[in-house]
Amino acid sequence: MTWLYFLTQINSFDVFVDVSVYCRPTGHSSLSDKVRVPAGAFGHAPPIVPRDSERGAAPWVTTPCAAPRPVPAVSCDRAPFSTCPGTMASSEDDGAVDEKETNNRRRNRGAIATAWLTFYNIAMTAGWLVLAITMMRFYLQKGTHRGLYRSIAKTLKFFQTAALVEVGHCAIGIVRTSVIVTGVQVCSRIFMVWFIASSIRQVQSEESVILFLVVWTVTEITRYSYYTFNLLHQVPYFIKWARYNLFIVLYPLGVVGELLTIYAALPIVRRTAMYSLRLPNKYNVSFDYYYFLIIAMLSYIPLFPQLFFHMLRQRRKVLHGEVIVEKDD
Q1: CA 105 to CA 99: how far, in whole Å?
Q2: Which of 4, 84, 184, 193 is most solvent-facing, going by the fewest CB within 10 Å?
Q3: Catalytic residue check, 54
Q4: Residue tagged active-site, from 251, 263, 275, 300
């Protein structure tokens, strides 16, 4: 009878029940926070201890959420301060997935950039080949260089101006080349085409114009074909040799042709005052194209050695395997 009486008095006691399957709610900052659960939900199995709470209160049980006892199926997402193995594994898996997705995106961007650069270099090689064939055909038919520039002017302006795209390649990083070096080379040639040879018709029959045109054509066919084969990972040795040896002769010849052409244009510019702005005018600004051309000629003194020695360093690196800490051109 004692045990019957004992059972009937269960509701008069507070009992501690192992309810570690319930974690404390998110936002509780104290490890002493407890979850109160009705004792009747666990039958008559839990151990019983005398209540020490307020008399007359409903029979509840309290349990610490962080009790160090083995528990099944812990809901880790509700315990923000828990170092649950499941949470750690999930974080590692998420990190691996993110890294894989990032690598895939990089590979896709790399494939697109390679495809575009291959197309661009093939197109530029073809364009300069067309220029070379046109110049040879003209000279064979006419027997003179007079009038040659006018026959190729449109094609030359198109493909030389298209080289501005290369500055964009450097700026966005799909080609590891100095933006300044590329910009100086491209802009100087565009200046020669648009503001000297095409603007001043009197110089178009000068031998110096034919000189820099021939140099440019050979240089660009070699350069763009080298870039194309390099992107395809199949560079013939004679293309590599031509790329890093012919410039030793072609660069100085090209500079001589450009300087002589600008020099031939000086008297014409001074006489006609083309592209010049004299005072007084409504803008209150003066500009003399004649002196600008002189300054442009003087700029070759510091710029040409830098570009030429840059190519010499690249030649040593590519042909002789010297390690040079410098970006490729």
Answers
A1: 10
A2: 4
A3: no
A4: 251
Q: What token pair was written down for 128?
A: 């300069």
- Residue 315 three-state SS: helix
Q: 0.70 cut: is pTM over it? A: no
Amino acid at 293: L
**Planar angle of CA 155, 160, 162, nearest 5 degrees:** 100
First to last CA, the chain: 100
Q: What separation in angstroms does the CA of 26 have from each of 29, 76, 207, 214, 325?
A: 9, 10, 85, 77, 54
State the Cα angle at 287 between 285 and 289, rounded to 5°. 170
Q: Beta-strand (E) ranges in the chain?
A: 34-38, 60-64
Q: What are the CA-CA distances from residue 209 to residues 1, 33, 153, 206 (Å)?
A: 124, 89, 12, 6
Catalytic residue among 166, 206, 220, 258: 258
Q: Annotated catalytic, 206?
A: no
Enter the DSSP assignment of 274.
T
**C-alpha 207: how far from its chain's center?**
42
Cis peptide before 236 (omega within 30 of 0): no
What is the C-alpha separation between 209 and 258, in angstroms, rounded? 7
Per-residue pLDDT of the chain (329 residues; tens, 9 = 90+): 444 444 444 444 444 434 444 444 444 444 444 444 444 444 444 454 444 444 444 444 444 444 455 544 444 444 444 444 455 545 555 566 566 666 666 677 789 999 999 999 999 999 999 999 999 999 999 999 999 999 999 999 999 999 999 999 999 999 988 899 899 999 999 999 999 999 999 999 999 999 999 999 999 999 999 999 999 999 999 999 999 999 999 999 999 999 999 999 999 999 999 999 988 888 899 999 999 999 999 999 999 998 899 899 989 998 887 554 444 44
Residue tagged 């709610």 (tokens):
25
